[in-house]
Specification:
alpha+beta; Beta-Lactamase; Arc Repressor Mutant, subunit A; 2 domains; five-stranded antiparallel beta sheet; 53% helix; PAS_4; transcription regulation; DNA-binding
């Protein structure tokens, strides 16, 4: 009886996209829908603004590579493909996304497959994203290693070995790596590198420090190693990232005028 009541209500309701107005009203939460090719089909207002786009028209039909470094766009695409090919959701995956100052920072993402009308075929993916800091209270897997993540962001913690971090968490190194793999999709070592790179990226955008000095400040052995790792994870060199950020800031300010 309850199912019949529900079906009757939705049949009378009209277009389901009416719910999208609610998504626009939720602050600091980003909703999106993509097709089989990972092209953006819909995004809520908060996401459009965070991407630095002028309007929905600038986003619809676009690939992630329009807004993000190539390596990050490839990671998003890989996650989309996993969801669409397996018909399995990704829940509370922690990954990088732009924060309010257009700096890459940790966010929590969940994605689900979207099916056609008769449920026989996956036609796309829908997702929701929120900052890690704001959303970690409701991301249970992330909360299990929250203390270690926060410790790794301190000067002392950034230098700790995997073994030392595991001991602090009262886990074996293998157990800690498994938890990081489940939450972040990467090992503890790769997370450490990514965290240092995120912090270095912030210095590239907010200071006039040289690339060499930033490499030293974030404990990379030399500028060459820093530049190589930065390019691998960000898809561009440190100087290219600095220039790209400044261009985006100019474009974003023009959109607001």
């Amino acid at each position: 009886m309850h199912i019949d009541f529900q079906q009757q209500f939705f049949a009378e309701m009209g277009p389901r996209h009416q719910f999208q107005f609610l998504y626009d009203a939720i602050p600091d939460v980003f909703f999106f829908t993509k097709d089989r090719e990972s092209r953006m089909v819909w995004a809520n207002r908060q996401l459009i603004k965070r991407l630095g786009a002028r309007s929905e028209e600038d986003v619809i039909g676009a690939y992630d590579s329009k807004f993000f470094p190539m390596e990050i766009a490839k990671k998003y695409r890989a996650d989309d493909c996993f969801v669409m090919e397996t018909s399995q959701p990704i829940n509370n995956r922690v990954e990088v996304f732009y924060n309010e100052t257009k700096i890459l920072d940790w966010h929590i993402t969940s994605k689900i497959p979207l099916f056609n009308a008769d449920g026989s075929q996956v036609i796309g993916v829908a997702g929701v994203m929120r900052s890690y800091k704001a959303g970690k209270r409701w991301a249970a897997p992330a909360s299990e290693i929250e203390e270690i993540v926060e410790y790794m962001r301190t000067p002392e913690g950034s230098l700790a070995t995997v073994e030392e971090l595991a001991q602090r968490a009262h886990l074996s190194s293998r157990q800690l790596n498994r938890k990081f793999q489940a939450v972040f999709g990467m090992s503890v070592r790769d997370f450490k590198i990514r965290t240092r790179l995120n912090s270095a990226a912030e210095d590239l955008t907010k200071t006039e420090l040289s690339v060499c000095q930033i490499a030293v400040d974030h404990d990379f052995s030399d500028q060459s190693t820093f530049s190589r790792l930065f390019r691998k994870h960000m898809g561009m060199t440190p100087l290219e990232y600095r220039r790209s950020y400044r261009i985006q800031m100019v474009v974003g300010s023009d959109h607001q005028e």
